[in-house]
Amino acid sequence: MKRIIAYALFVIVFCSAAFIQSTSNTDTTITIITAILNDGTKIWGTLHEENANEFVAFDFTLGKVRIEKKDVTSEEKQMANAAVIITTINNAAYFGIIIGATPKTLIMKSSSLGRFEIQTNAISKITPSAKYVYRRVEN
After folding, report:
1. Cα–Cα dist 49/136, whole Å
2. Most buried of 1, 5, 121, 130 (most Cβ within 10 A)?
3. How far apart are CA 35 and CA 31, in angstroms?
4. Contact, 75 vs 33, CB < 8 A?
5. What does the pLDDT average to over 46-58?
6. Secondary element (H or E) of residue 7
7. Pick from 25-39, 80-94, 124-138: least confident
8. How far apart are CA 105 and CA 60, in angstroms?
9. Cα angle for residues 100, 31, 115 (degrees, 5° grid)
10. What φ, ψ does residue 92 adopt, rounded to 5°?
11. Rounded Cα distance, 30 and 79, in Å
């Protein structure tokens, strides 16, 4: 009887661990998009969804925007799938990994701060790997 109970517990623990690993391994890669529209408007933020005709982005200033691709003159995408440095408009710098985005915040994680959020309208530069994306702040 003890062997059956031990075996049942082993199976439950083993299956639970396998289930947790398979469900927690989600893709949290964030794409930073910079797009210039036909009218000169600059969209700079995180790409939320995209299809052949349009994309939805969380612009760091405007919030959630839906843009038709026919209205875009140029676009650049950068994957932020590694550690980044976020510089804010008051020159504070935060180092970590972007783990999520909402229309008004980037959700980050670092070894020193844990999980934290940065308001997107306060971001002036994102430096992933050896490249950077810069938003000119005009006074």
Report:
1. 25
2. 121
3. 12
4. yes
5. 93
6. helix 2-24
7. 124-138
8. 8
9. 25
10. -80, 145
11. 6
Task: Output the pTM of the full model.
Answer: 0.64
pLDDT at 50 (0 to 100): 94
**Residue keyed to tokens 């036909």:** 38
Q: For the sheet with 93-101, list strands across it.
A: 114-119, 105-110, 93-101, 84-88, 123-128, 133-134
CATH topology for 80-134 is SH3 type barrels. (2.30.30)
The full set of domain ranges for the chain reads: 30-79, 80-134
Angle at 134 between CA 26 and CA 86, to 5 degrees: 50
pLDDT of residue 82: 74
**Topology of domain 30-79, CATH:** SH3 type barrels. (2.30.30)
Per-residue tokens: 4: 């059956």
- Decide: 95 and 109 in contact? Cβ < 8 Å: no
pLDDT score of 61 more than 70: yes
Q: How far apart are CA 131 and CA 139, in angstroms?
A: 25
Positive or negative, the CA dihedral 40, 46, 49, 51 is positive
Sheet holding 54-59, edge to edge: 63-68, 54-59, 42-50, 30-37, 72-80
Residue carrying structure tokens 């299809």: 51
